[in-house]
């Protein structure tokens, strides 16, 4: 009875052997290590993008690329500095402040002479060319066009009123009475306004009925001029 083997339960019979289970975990880390070495990490994938952004975002001089595209927004001093930084030829010899000033004056004189010559040529062409030849095509003289803004004088306003003051020298104050019918209520509406008129000979006096006409500004308040005295005050 003592030599008989012990009976195994169904659960113990189905359970795998312990040595085989111990060997399998030892092989799994090696299998997982190979894909990890082949596939780049998330940081490695982002690294080229960051490098491209750094290369394209800034120039060798350190200025942003957007500023290069907007060259017109740079100051003249900044443009000269960038031009000097991109210069690849031999450097000019060292010059003193007096020599640089002399060269600057000579350059300005040459530019002024060229501008003067060009202006003389343009004036000569305008003097020789006829007035109607501006629109000429293939040597044919085009008819002269009428000016867009012709010199015309508009109709000046004329008002009639009563002089209410003549105390100032060569100036009268005229009251203009206006009576009109209301557009909706059909009632006569009376209103008045005053204006200052120029009286060269001090001919009009208080109470006179006068006619005034619109004129150029003669003073700060005078925009009218006396035409005639229609009726003298009694």
Describe this structure in words.
By secondary structure, the chain is an alpha+beta fold. Among the domains are: 49-82, no CATH class; 158-231, Beta Barrel (OB fold (Dihydrolipoamide Acetyltransferase, E2P)), CATH 2.40.50. Helices cover 38% and strands 20% of the residues. The chain contains 6 helices and 5 strands; from the N terminus they run ααααααβββββ. It has helices spanning 10-14, 18-38, 42-57, 65-69, 76-85, 97-128; strands spanning 158-165, 171-181, 188-198, 209-214, 222-231. Strands 1-2-3-5-4 form a 5-stranded mixed β-barrel. A hairpin with a 6-residue loop joins β2 (171-181) and β3. The chain starts with 9 loop residues before the first helix and ends with a strand.
Q: What is this entry, summarized?
A:
This protein is of the alpha+beta class. 38% of the residues lie in helices and 20% in strands.
The CATH architecture assignment of one domain turns out to be Beta Barrel
Q: Could you state the CATH homologous superfamily of one domain?
A: Nucleic acid-binding proteins
Task: Extract low-pLDDT stretches.
Answer: 19-38, 40-64
Strand order of the largest sheet: 1-2-3-5-4
The CATH topology name of one domain reads OB fold (Dihydrolipoamide Acetyltransferase, E2P)
Helices and strands, in N-to-C order?
Answer: HHHHHHEEEEE
The pLDDT mean sits at: 75
Computed Rg: 50 Å
Number of strands: 5
CATH class (first level) name of one domain: Mainly Beta
Helix segment count? 6
Largest sheet: 5 strands, mixed, barrel
Distance between the termini: 167 Å
Global geometry: elongated
State the helical fraction: 25-40%
Strand content: 15-25%
User: Structural class of the helix and strand makeup?
Assistant: alpha+beta
């Amino acid at each position: 009875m003592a030599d008989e083997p012990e009976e195994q339960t169904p659960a113990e019979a189905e359970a795998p052997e312990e040595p085989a289970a111990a060997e399998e975990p030892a092989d799994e880390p090696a299998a997982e290590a190979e894909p990890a070495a082949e596939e780049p990490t998330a940081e490695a994938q982002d690294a080229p993008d960051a490098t491209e952004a750094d290369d394209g975002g800034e120039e060798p001089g350190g200025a942003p690329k957007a500023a290069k595209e907007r060259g017109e927004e740079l100051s003249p001093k900044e443009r000269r500095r960038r031009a000097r930084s991109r210069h690849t030829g031999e450097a000019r010899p060292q010059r003193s402040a007096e020599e640089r000033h002399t060269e600057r004056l000579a350059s300005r004189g040459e530019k002024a002479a060229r501008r003067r010559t060009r202006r003389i040529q343009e004036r000569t062409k305008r003097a020789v060319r006829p007035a109607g030849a501006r629109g000429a095509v293939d040597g044919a003289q085009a008819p002269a066009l009428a000016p867009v803004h012709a010199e015309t004088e508009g109709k000046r306003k004329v008002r009639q009123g009563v002089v209410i003051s003549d105390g100032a020298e060569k100036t009268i104050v005229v009251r203009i009475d206006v009576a009109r019918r209301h557009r909706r209520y059909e009632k006569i509406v009376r209103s008045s306004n005053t204006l200052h008129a120029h009286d060269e000979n001090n001919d009009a006096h208080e109470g006179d009925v006068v006619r005034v006409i619109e004129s150029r500004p003669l003073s700060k308040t005078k925009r009218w001029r006396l035409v005639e005295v229609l009726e003298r005050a009694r």
